[in-house]
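INPUT
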Amino acid sequence: MKTDIILAGVGGQGILSIAAVIGKAALEDGLYMKQSEVHGMSQRGGDVQSHLRLSDKPIASDLIPLGTADIIISLEPMEALRYLPYMQSDAWVVSNSKPFENIANYPDYAQLMAEYDRLPHKIIFDVEQIAKDFGTPRVGNVVLLGAASPYLGIDFAKLENGIRSIFGKKGEEVVAINLQALQAGRKQCELNKL
Amino acid sequence: MKKQLLLGDEAIAQAAIDAGLSGVYSYPGTPSTEITEYIQQWAKTSDNKTVAVWCANEKTAVETAFGMSYAGKRTLSCMKHVGLNVAADAFMNIAMSGINGGMLIVTADDPSMHSSQNEQDNRVYGNFAMIPVFEPSNQQEAYDMVYEAYDLSEKWGYPVLLRITTRMAHSRAGVTTRPVQAQKPLHLEDNSMSKYTLLPVNARKRYKALIEAQKVFETASETSKYNRLYTVNHHTCRGVVACGIAFNYLQESYPDSFDCPVLKISQYPLPKQQLRELASLCDEILVLEDGYPIVEEQLKGILNTGLTIHGRLDGTLPRDGELNPDIVKHALGFAVTKPYNVPEVVVARPPALCMGCGHRDVYEALNEVVKEYPNAKVFSDIGCYTLGALPPFRAIDSCIDMGASITMARGASDAGVFPAIAVIGDSTFTHSGMTGLLDCVNSNANVLIIISDNETTGMTGGQDSAATGRIHAICQGLGVASEHLHGVVPLKKNFEELKNLIRQEIEYQGVSVIVPCRECIQTHARKVKEKHLKQQA
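OUTPUT
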């Protein structure tokens, strides 16, 4: 088994908590994992990405080679497209549809969506809209993780354990909301799969 | 033993803790910051009194760590690559005296300049100071090397340099830890005055001892488990030398086994015999190293046989920038295929100052006043406020190194630039700005210095700033006249006040300092959150 995942977004959106949950789940599954993160200057509202590699065999490179990623998970629709060169031909793109517009020359939304039309497999929906149902937009990243969950090569139950482990110190209520958010994301996957 | 998912930085920190660390002294700098932060977090919950602190700069940090080593305890000092330039005076001479308690210095280099102003390769410093350098290829090796480096440092009597790069620092993998060792007791060496007092008469002896120690370091490299020659059972055209993390990229191209001899190097000085053995097995050598072509250059001298060497110098690999699996794959002659390109619709998203940040208010006011002075030059410095160079501000004309804003402004002013304005942050000011300010005061330079104080070390994630609460007293102490030293809160409501102050002090012929002070919004938000969590618990 091998899953190479690109996580993308804008600094501050919370892609690293998605990585943390997957990491916990992978460790519980006895998988090897390497995850390269971005810290420092680029965090301040710039584009950020993380390479997350899972395998049942030891992993050599911390970075995913071009043309080999199995899935791109993005909290921002333009940011997902930035990493297309990493994708293998049959990969999935799972992205939030709502733009994060902190630059003056943000592209035209219709043009952006036209690029999505060309992709073989994608799930794109307004993550924050779903997250609002839980009264807190902060669970958006977990909703997105739920939508990507069928393509990670990890049992859904293990991801749920990952949520319990990562959010445990914030209390039972936070864990419960995030578990529901994961479920809701999973449902969105079925509704929006293209 | 326990397996944990750790960043390279965290693996280094955990290993130092497990090896019986008594103190870590550092200055924040991406990508090294998380090492010291991890030890600080651990120290909060531990009762073994390990000191884990941020110092005013890398030089004070290394010297303080050395003082602890002098007293027989195990110490650590961590910094980004350019930080070692600041600490270089201490670093070079600690190699001359040698150490007592085990001492490790970590340099986190930043090839591709993800968050730095150059991509200097600090393996050069190891060679320069003539001490052993470790360069891990993965997180487990980083842990093991640090854990063992303390024993080796004490056995050899010299400090050890650990060189990592951004990719190693900020990549996470499973790491198995080893048993925790007790801290070393206070232990002073007998008759050590001549060792630690580098008067020429002593220094000459110490230098001979350091030269003598090279044999020991070279033997250690030849027999190190971190330097390993992988052979195949036939002579091949190509052999490969892979240093540090480059070994992983090589392995990525050969998931099962290598088809040519490979020498993995993770400990320096270079193992010359192993390099010669590799050369005997092939007709040409490809050198894969992140950073400068150091091994590639040295190899030519070591072999001295005219054997063809490929690497960054002959264009087989790019001369600059970080290596990655694709660059290595290409250099090995394999095709790199990518079915998709970046669509044209995608545009750059550069980093920016946070909304609500006090530096924004400072630059907005400064830009308005500077419009009135067509010849104004604004010399800035290293920190979040360097982002003032980018739109929408485009407010600064320079950013060279820690502290250069003040000193460059003085030099430019001496040359006739008016107004010469410096913009520096609080932590950078106490790191390397104070001495420059003293120079300005002593020469009554015609400069305006804006110390944009956010009460933290912001760019690296909000570490304590040595300057907090002290800037006015420092400026006064250095001789800045009280009537030309002003504080102001950079908020919209004080916009006119700030503008008036800037204009007024530009017009003053001498040293003026304005200190706009408002806490970093990120640090503030984090403190509120921590307080909230504490109340819940």
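end of record. Chain A has one domain: 2-100+107-192.
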